[in-house]
Each structure stands twice: as C-alpha cells, then as structure tokens.
Amino acid sequence: MRYGEIGFDLEVDLSRGSIDRVETDPNDTRLYMGGLGTNAKIMWDRVPAETDAFSPDNLLIFSSGLLCGTAAPGSNRTIVSTISPQTKLMAYSMMGGFFAPELKYAGYDKVIISGKSEDLVYLWIHNDKVEIRDASHLKGMGATAASEAIRKELDDPDIQVAAIGLAGENRVFYASIEQGRSSASRGGIGAVMGDKGLKAIAVRGTKDINVADPAKYMELCDGVLKYIKFRGDNPIKGVPPILQGLGSPQEMAIVDEEWHTTNFTWGNSRTRRKDFWTHEIEQKWKQTQENVRTRLISCHNCPMKCGATISVPGLPTYMMKCYSKLTYTMAAFSDLDFGFRIAQKATEYGVDGFSAPQAMAFGLELLEAGILTLEDFPGMPEDTEGRFFYLLDKIVRREGIGDYLADGTYWAARRIGKGAEKYDHNTIKKHEQLPLKLGMLNPVYYLMYSTGEKINITQIEGQFPQEPFATRELREEFVKDWFQVPDEKFKKYYVDWEPRGEMSNPYYPTVEASCEIVDWMEKMHYIDDALGMCAGLSSFPLKPPYHIHNYPEFVTAATGIKMSKDDVWKSATRTRTLMRALNVRRGMRRADDKPPEDHWRKRFPDLEKQLLDQYYKLKGFNNQGIPTRESLEELEMGFVAEEFEQKGIYNNG
Amino acid sequence: MAKVKKIVKSITIDADKCNGCKACEVICSSWHATPRYSSNNPARSRIRIVRLPLRDIYLPVYAGEYTESECTGRDKYIIDGKEYNECDFCRASCPSRDLFHEPDSGLPLKCDMCEETPALAQPKCVEWCHAEALIYVEREEEVEEDEQPKLGDVEIGIGAMIDKFGLQQVLDTIARMAKP
C-alpha cells in the first residue's frame, strides 16, 4: 500500500480511445516526490525534444501533488504540464481549487492525456469508472457554463470540473483551463487541451487517502493551522496591506489598491501613474467591489479566503481570485467596474489574465503607431472599453486581427512586422510578464526573472522581502521571529540590506548572497509544486506556515518514506535541474535568460554577467546554462547527460 | 417518567460565514478513521457542505438519525433570493441520497460530536472551521429520562442491514461468518 500518494495514474489516449490505470514506481516518489517533479520525469521520458505543442505526441498531464487531499491545510494544487504553444518550452502552470484532491479521492495521482480526439469530448472519472464522453453539445460554451452543464447531466453537484472555453477550443496561445474559482492560465495549456479535442475533465471520488504516520501527521497539520491563525492575528507591519498576511495577495478582500495602481504600469505596460490613487477613486472602487462581491471563498481544505464569487448585475455569476481584477482595468486605462465586467467574459472564454489584456493593449498601441490601421479593426467601437470587448471577441474566435493577437505579443509582432517587434517589450521567452517597469536593478529579481523555468515572476518570488525596511532597527525587528530561513545567514543579508548607499541595490545583496536567496526562494516553490501545496501558505508570503524545517516531517509522516531536510532539498534541486534540462533539450540557452530590456531603467551589464555566471555555478550548470554531467550524476540523472552527449548539446553550446 | 438534567450538544451553523473549504469534511473523516487520522475521505464525513458556488449556497449540515425510508418532503425554500431544497437542511441518513452513508457499504453515518474521554473542548469540525461558520453550543435541558440505551455505531449499522435484507438473512450471514 502507498501512503500520501495513491500510486496509480490514469493514462488516456484520445486517439485510440483507450483508458488505463497504471501503477507508478515508488522510487520516483523518493526522487521527485510528486506533482511537478514526477510530471517533469514523465515529460523527459516520453515527449521527445522535437515534439510540437499541437502534436498528438505531446502529453497533457493533470497532476495532484504528493500531499494533495491529505489533511494538510492548503494542499490542493493541480499541476498541469505540457509543451507550451507560445514559449515552445515546458508550460508550467497550476491551479488551486478542488480538482486535485477529488482526483486522489477517485484513486489517481495524475491523469495523463495523449493523442487527439477527432470530435470534442470530455472525460468523466468516477472512482473506477472512467468514460470518454461526447461533448459536441458543449462546443463553444463558456468554461463555467460547460462545467455547470456537466454537473447537471451527471446529476451530482460535488463533481469537480476543469474545462476550457472558446479560447482553448480555438487554440489561443494563452488559453487557460478554468476550474471553479481557480484556473491554470499560463503558457497556453488550454490551447493544448483544445487541440486534443478535450473540452473538460470531470471527476468525483469517494475513496480514502491514507497517511503512514497518522498521529504525527495530524500534529503537524494542527501546528500549521494554529500558525495560520497566529499570522492572521499578527500581520507584518511596514508593508502594503496586500503583503501583510498569508494566502495570495488578498485582492478580493482588500480595496486599497494604491500599491498596484501607482507602482505597476498601465496600457501595454507603459505608463506609471504615481498620482492615480485618490480618496475619490478609493471610495468609488470600494463601492464597485462591495457591490459585486457576494462572498469570499476558499480552495479545498484551506482557511484563507483568496477568491470571491462575483455577481455583476446583468451578467452571469463567476469566481475570481487575485490580480485579474486589475490587469484589464489597467491595460485599458479604465476603472474597476470595467475590470469586473470584462473578467466575467474572459473567464468564460478561458484566457490568461496577464497575457490577454497585454495582447489587446499591444494591438491598440500598434493602431496608434500607424503600424495597424482601422481597416484591421472593422466595426470596432470608439471607446477603449468597447475596444477591449471587441478585441477579446476577435481573439478567442481568431477572427481577423484577433488571429494575430491570439498568438501573444511576441508572435503577433513578428507576423505583423513593420516594426511591431519593438512594441513586444514585456515578454521573457515569448511570454507576457507582469506589467511592471522600475528604476534600479534589483539583483535578486534580475536572477528570478532571467532564469526561472516558470517564466513568470509572480510564481517565483517569495518570502525574502522585496525591499529593505527603512532602518536597521526595523529590519532587526523583522528577523527576530523569522524561523523559516534555511540558514541564519539570510537574516544577516536582510539586516545589512539598506534602501540607499553602498549596501543597497544593485551591489547588495552581493552576487553570492543574491544567488543563495534566489536558490532558497526557488527551492521552496519546487517543493510546493511537488507536494501540491499552495504557494500562498508557503513559498510566496512573508513568514509562512510551511517551510524547509517542517516539510521533511510532513513528507515522511505522509508517505512513510523517510526524508531528511537534505533529501527534500535535493529532490527539489533534482526537479529544478530536470526542468532546465527539458528546456535546454528544446533549445533554450543562456541568451534566453534575460528580463525584458526595459524592465529596469538602470542596468549593469557587468554585474548581470557576474550574477548569471555565479547562479549557473551554484546550480551546477555550465556557462550556457546547461546542467553539467557532474551535477546530473550527483542528482542520479545521468540519463540526461547521456542524451545531451548523444545530441551534441554540450559541444554546440 | 422521571425528569433528568442533560447536556445537549449541538452545532449552530452560520451559513453566511462558510467559505466552502471542506476542512470540516476532511477533519471529520480523518478523526473517525481507524486508526484515528490514518485516512480521510469527505464521502465518509458526518458533516457535509451543500455547496453550490454559482448560486452562493454554502450550507454545512451534520449527520443526524438514520431513517429507513425517505419522507415526502419536496418543498422549496427561497431565502434571500436563493432557492434551497427541503432536503438541503435535512440531517437524516436517508435512502434517497448518498449523503451520510459509508460509500462502500452504504451503512449510515451519524455525528457523535467527537465524543471522547477525556472530552474534547469542541468537535473537530468546529475546531478546524476558521471561518467560524460552525459554533459549538452546549445547553442544559430537562428531559424525560431515556430508558432506551443509546445505540452505538454497530447497532445502528446492523439495524440498517436488517432494514435492508431482513433479520433472518442478517442472522444467517453473521452465523456463517462467525464460523471459524
């Protein structure tokens, strides 16, 4: 018997219509733990380097994490892995909600989809009964509406559904997979699902999830719950409201958006509006938000309330979390009311809340610049809000200019030509980034932006504060109860970090310290993504309940596989390295490891080179960012080095 | 019949505060697992949330008595513009629905308020509900002395089997299974 995990995956080949329940190798659990870790191993073994995102050979893996569905609060993430049509690299996307626990209650750790169905279908998993069902009646339906229709026809409101909307069906390169209050949005995984002819996966499970050391495991869970309560009662002082507590930034609860609206950029990530936030705006936005927000809601077994049910009068109800309330608002230079209205449509269509508004603002910027003309936008309304709704409709249907914009700003710019390339200024590895443009280079962020395999800062940054507090006394106060650090030296790095002067950005934290900080942040995310733990209770917020000191105990008590701190750390290193290897095998190199050129006004090429060199060294990569044979063997992944050698990857750089 | 004082335990449900996280279902099924905490499975939980997010219905219900036949209640209630079924509020382990039946055997489940020696300060679901949707209430009531001994889990289970298969078949089966 297996503990923590189930020990079985569901293999579904949509070309052949076959369904198999396959036992997994417990040794892979020891090596990669689960979730993203074991996904990466499957992708390495089974998806050859030359496989296109829209090839039937591409896999689409829905995975639970190792702790998902156990009593550990917040262990509910579904990790979706495939090849991205947009970056052509590994798509690295996840969602909270209820899907992963339900999948495990049904008796599976993962659903691995291969092949392609000729007709639109959905998958129905009910414990041991699994069916591929016709979905022609759901074609073109919104993601939320289709999920409701499935629950109704299967007559069980407790079914969890992950579905795509029109954007996924039409293979928009930033189509999302929606699941109730959550979505896996980044990297265009919804387009892969649409390409496979899979409208939805519906799952219902009524089996047990077992843990190996029940008493110990519950003691750990109780400890985490108590600490969550403590952190709720003791917010971090001296940081903006959305960073004070646990969970995702509390966008649904908090109305004070001064920090986002004045620090982040508007339009096609262009304009900073430092004076935007006024008392009048605050009153208006407060009223808007409170009028449409019905209830604050949670994911499976988590006391945080990061999401909300949104009912805009006259529109169907939907659920929202985090930052998408502002991405459309700010891209269109509009207000919050517009944000909530267009997000309703965007959720039904199933598009990513970062990429979609940027692609639309990018299109309108090209119009303004004369690279596109009004003829490219037949019938488009005059007002900006109307134009955004118009473009959203065009994009998800891939009609006219929408077909270009549906590929994201990088590919659209190259297809359009005529100098459009320079308007694609906010992508890394062809993927739209958070709309943020800053002054002084921050060495830690430079590395996270440049090297992260997630290609997405919001899921890489972590519990090392983004800025130093103004005085040494405040910083000393902050580190007093900072027990989450893996090593005491991180406290010193933080205490010594000054807002200005010699001990400030970009030369402090030093190159070595910056690499170590990034290593810590990154490792915690890789552990979360293997365990299916929400970053909102672990790697993302300041002073979280899960950390490197209690995670090994959780893993050991859940699985019965004895894992020390070093073992867990090493497993995360292994997955991080394998993710890099997957992307290297697909052609990624040092030249790709860079932030958007205009992300910081003040850049330091020599320092940046040193940072990257040192980071690669620490990671066991060569100076092209390729994992070395030595480091791969140390991680029991000699098989990767072998393939690199066979393919001449080491020689050709 | 003599009157006695008795502590009545109940859970007041503030449905407006429920965030739909199912922590109550996880901890209930975990507490009642054998060995304790060795597994969890919301389908075995003695508290369940009627959860219809798009209609903003979040209604925790904890399991009450087993009933051998379903009632005729099919009424609808509209509260604050939201339509509920009569069944949504019902705590019975009833043959009309899967709720409060063991998923494998179909045996009924009933909330026991996590009775334990020494007593817990409150049932586990209440302890784990950070949303404070579940409020544990103890009140003293004067009741008529209950001469019927309280049924344990095994009696309730066998009772349900008798209702389903008839006494003779259950007796025969137990006799057969008891043979070495």
Q: Which helices and strands occur, and which strands form pairs?
A:
The complex is a heterodimer of chains A (653) and B (180).
Chain A: E1 8-13, E2 18-23, H1 26-32, H2 36-46, E3 60-63, E4 78-83, E5 90-95, H3 99-106, E6 110-114, E7 121-126, E8 129-134, H4 143-154, E9 160-163, H5 166-169, E10 177-179, E11 182-184, H6 189-195, E12 198-204, E13 209-210, H7 214-233, H8 258-263, E14 265-266, E15 271-272, H9 279-292, E16 293-297, E17 307-310, E18 318-321, H10 324-331, H11 336-349, H12 355-368, H13 384-397, H14 401-405, H15 408-416, E19 427-428, E20 431-432, E21 438-440, H16 443-451, H17 472-480, H18 489-496, H19 511-531, H20 551-559, H21 565-585, E22 600-602, H22 605-619, H23 629-634, H24 638-646, H25 649-652
Parallel strand pairs in A: 1-6, 7-12, 21-22
Antiparallel strand pairs in A: 1-2, 3-4, 3-6, 4-5, 7-8, 9-12, 10-11, 14-15, 16-17, 17-18, 19-20
Helix pairs in contact in A: 1-2, 2-21, 7-20, 10-11, 11-13, 12-13, 16-19, 16-22, 17-18, 19-21, 19-22
Chain B: E1 3-13, H1 23-31, E2 39-40, E3 47-52, E4 57-62, E5 76-79, E6 82-85, H2 86-89, H3 124-128, E7 134-144, H4 153-165, H5 167-178
Antiparallel strand pairs in B: 1-7, 3-4, 5-6
Could you explain how this protein is built, in words?
The complex is a heterodimer of chains A (653) and B (180). Chain A is globular, with a radius of gyration of 23 Å. In chain A, α7 (214-233) runs antiparallel to α20 (551-559), α16 packs across α19 and α16 (443-451) crosses α22. Chain A has 25 helices and 22 strands. Chain A has 653 residues and is of the alpha+beta class. Among the domains of chain A are: 8-204, Aldehyde ferredoxin oxidoreductase, N-terminal domain (Aldehyde Ferredoxin Oxidoreductase,  A, domain 1); 241-423, Orthogonal Bundle (Aldehyde Ferredoxin Oxidoreductase Protein, subunit A, domain 2), CATH 1.10.569.10; 620-653, no CATH class. The relative contact order of chain A is 0.12. In chain A, strands 2-1-6-3-4-5 form a six-stranded mixed beta sheet. A four-stranded mixed beta sheet of chain A has the order 8-7-12-9, sandwiched between helices. The model of chain A has no long low-confidence stretch (mean pLDDT 96). In chain A, β4 and β5 form a beta hairpin. Chain A starts with 7 loop residues before the first strand and ends with a helix. Chain B is of the alpha+beta class. Chain B has two domains: 3-147, no CATH class; 150-180. Chain B has five helices and seven strands; from the N terminus they run βαβββββααβαα. Chain B has a two-stranded antiparallel ribbon. A two-stranded antiparallel sheet of chain B has the order 3-4. Chain B has a two-stranded antiparallel sheet with strand order 5-6. In chain B, β5 (76-79) and β6 form a beta hairpin. In chain B, α4 crosses α5. The radius of gyration of chain B is 18 Å and the shape is globular. Chain B starts with a strand and ends with a helix. The model of chain B has no long low-confidence stretch (mean pLDDT 92). Chain A binds chain B through residues 69-71, 73, 98, 105, 144, 148, 157-158, 180-181, 205-211, 214-215, 217-218, 225, 228-229, 232, 294-303, 305, 309, 311, 316-319, and chain B through 19-23, 26-27, 30, 33, 35-44, 50-56, 58, 103, 128, 130-131. β13 (209-210) of chain A pairs antiparallel with β2 of chain B, so a sheet runs across the interface.
